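Section 5: illustrative case.
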């Protein structure tokens, strides 16, 4: 689910539960080749950075990033890094397939957060207060 093509249309990042829980994988979009498991410990939706040098994904209440190299027909990945905690964001899929979006340079993120209902304090209205001042 949640398949995303890389910037050069050669690689496909997607989530699959083939291991028993959802993880993010990358494989060639066309032709043959292997596949690489990007996430560890469960993961939700993913996004490519616009230049294809990183993949972002949600895992365990954190927004994660992993550096990737997609030169030609080769694929290499670095170690996934935690960017920040996004607990309280809606579950993956609540925003059309993703709980977040990233700017093209991967420096800013938009994360949908659940809004808590505001609690209001009672209001006291004093009528004819000017008369009380004269006393």
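Designed sequence:
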């Amino acid at each position: 689910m949640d398949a995303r093509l890389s910037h050069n249309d050669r690689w496909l990042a997607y989530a699959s539960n083939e291991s028993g829980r959802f993880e993010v994988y990358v494989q060639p979009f066309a032709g043959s080749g292997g596949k690489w498991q990007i996430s560890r410990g469960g993961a939700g939706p993913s996004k490519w950075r616009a230049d294809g040098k990183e993949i972002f994904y949600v895992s365990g209440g954190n927004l994660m990033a992993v550096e990737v190299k997609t030169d030609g027909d080769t694929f290499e990945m670095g170690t996934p890094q935690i960017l920040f905690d996004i607990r309280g964001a809606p579950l993956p899929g609540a925003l059309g397939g993703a709980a977040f979006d990233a700017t093209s340079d991967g420096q800013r993120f938009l994360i949908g957060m659940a809004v808590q209902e505001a609690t209001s304090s009672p209001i006291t209205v004093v009528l004819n207060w000017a008369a009380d001042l004269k006393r």
